[in-house]
Amino acid sequence: MPRPSNRTARRTSPKASSDAARAAQRGPSRVRATRAAERRDAILAAALDEFSARGFAAARLDDVARRANVAKGTIYLYFADKEALFQELIRAELSPVVGVLIQAAHADIPIRQFADRVVEVFVREVFETRRKDVIRLVLTEGARFPKLAEFYYQEVISRVLAAIRALVQRAIERGELRHDALLKYPQLIPAPALVAIMWNGLFDRFEPLDVRALMRAHFNILFDDGSTT
């Protein structure tokens, strides 16, 4: 009669088997998720190029797909239509900047310090990037496509203006401002940024604009602090 072995057979528990199976599945799932994110980013980048070159009305999803090196049907896996694609372009490009500005507006800092931050955030994160092209597209196409303008207003303008109004109210209560003009017209804060974007697209080749200097001069006048720099 054979003697029993001293070695005990190792048995894998059902839980361990399940964990191992899930771990094995996570590898391919992560790869697929990464590729999907890359395709989505490629489509958004191609859309910005196509919208910038042709305008929203003339841009075709076929050409966006060609630029992104994907099939046209792939676009519909991520976006319902051209309008949804443009809206996501606004959200993807500008939401991070909006978040930074709102955070700065809610910080307990003097309003002039906030204005200085606005200058640097706008120049570095918008004017020196393709984000300015998204804003320019809204400015030029929004009148013909009111739904796009409404989306931009809700996602960007209304959020920023609400934060500015709260900041201005605190500044008035602290005695930093001598009047309530900025509370009534918070659009005065971002006004030079919009001027810079439009000037850059139309006239920069004739007369380049120092955006930082323009915005600082605007705030010097707005806050009437007598500065010349």
Question: What's a quick, concise take on this entry?
Answer:
The protein is an all-alpha fold and 229 residues long.
List keywords for this structure.
2 domains; 74% helix; Tetracycline Repressor, domain 2; 0% strand; Arc Repressor Mutant, subunit A; 229 residues
Please tell me about this protein's structure.
- With 229 residues, the chain is mainly alpha-helical.
- 74% of the residues lie in helices and 0% in strands.
- Helix 6 packs across helix 9.
SSE string: HHHHHHHHHH
Number of helices: 10
Silhouette: globular
- Cα separation of the termini: 101 Å
What is the element layout, followed by pairings?
Blueprint lengths: L13 H45 L2 H8 L3 H7 L3 H25 L4 H17 L3 H11 L4 H28 L7 H4 L6 H12 L8 H13 L6
Helix pairs in contact: 1-2, 1-4, 1-6, 4-5, 4-7, 5-10, 6-9
